[in-house]
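Now for our target.
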Amino acid sequence: MEPSEYLSAIRYQGQALLAAVADSPDARVEHCPDWDNTGLADHMRGVWGFMAAQARAASPEGPTRPDPDDASTPDQTLESLLAVLTDADPTAPAWNWCPEEGRTVAWILRRMAHETAIHRWDAENAAGDAEPIGADLAVDGVAEALEVAWGFRLRGPAPDYPAGSLHLHRTDGDGEWMVMAVGGALQVSEEHGKGDVAVRGTASDLDLFTWNRRRPDLEYFGDTAVVEAWAAVAP
């Protein structure tokens, strides 16, 4: 996806998230049980503000803390993030917790598009009627989750991976992934293959699966305990 597409996704998904929160502010968030929708919006305010600070600082060496006295509301923080990312060069340096060669504004654009999409779904699901994630965004979301969320952590070491291999198979278009641990490191390839376990579903449902939000229409093959172990890799 192009930087402009990520920027559009952040805007659309963010506004939809905030609309769901406004509609049902006290609804409990199924997959984040400590939060209601108001708490989810506050979480996103912090995430959006933190990432805007990294883009502004343009320093890949270490994280930049946002202004602790910033009293912006979630909608104001979203608009501030969008303004910063609109003006920034995607190739400009910006800190993140992945290897140094990937510390750019482009990483932030991609991460924020997917973080916002997953939590938009959470907010709408809490409100009672969640729209699926658009197919193109969801396919890229699966790849991004496997590359970033399953491989690295903002705090602490990467997780211990299950011994068995995992095959993800998209049913509403092209998209397959083979996932396994080799020498304690995650190895991902976009190809057809036979894993020890497999999960089949739409791009949206597979994207949600990579964040441990399992949908009823997903099909599972193989040892369900191994499927559960892979789903639990999500932070």
